[in-house]
Amino acid sequence: MTLQVDPIDRKLLRLLQTDSRKSVQELGDLVGLSASACHRRLKALEERGLIEGYRAILSAERLGYSMQFFIEVGLTSQSETALEAFEAAVQDIPEVLECHLMAGQSDYILRVVCQDHDDFERLHRRLSARLPGVARIHSNMSIRTVKVRTGLPI
């Protein structure tokens, strides 16, 4: 369901995607609203579900996670029970940053981070042994990140 967004809301959303640390006063000044009017708009955007949260983007490499993998997972069954069991189990693995249910060759694609090759081997064994219904795993190592965009093109 697409919600209607006016030009001021769009500008607020673009500004927040760029820097969510700006104060309500700063945001208001940039979009031509008072701080109180800007605050009301932000609350309305949050209540409508257009703003899901605010977060810091951390440096994986500086925190020791120098390796990133995209892991394709095929399950033995695509039943609702099998999918739910897999999805519940993957929630408990902190190295899994993203998990996407796919249409196509793989049932899921996981984006994971690891500190080194040994860390990846431990994670790979953990994925193979602990995730229910796994028939096959195919791992792809990211050599270099070319583009990351956390914001949407609004």
Automatic annotation (TrEMBL):
Gene3D superfamilies: 3.30.70.920, Winged helix-like DNA-binding domain superfamily/Winged helix DNA-binding domain. The keyword Electron transport does not apply. Keywords: DNA-binding, Transcription, Transcription regulation. Signal peptide: none annotated. Residues 5-66 form the HTH asnC-type domain. This is Lrp/AsnC family transcriptional regulator. It comes from Devosia oryziradicis. The lineage of its organism: Bacteria, Pseudomonadati, Pseudomonadota, Alphaproteobacteria, Hyphomicrobiales.
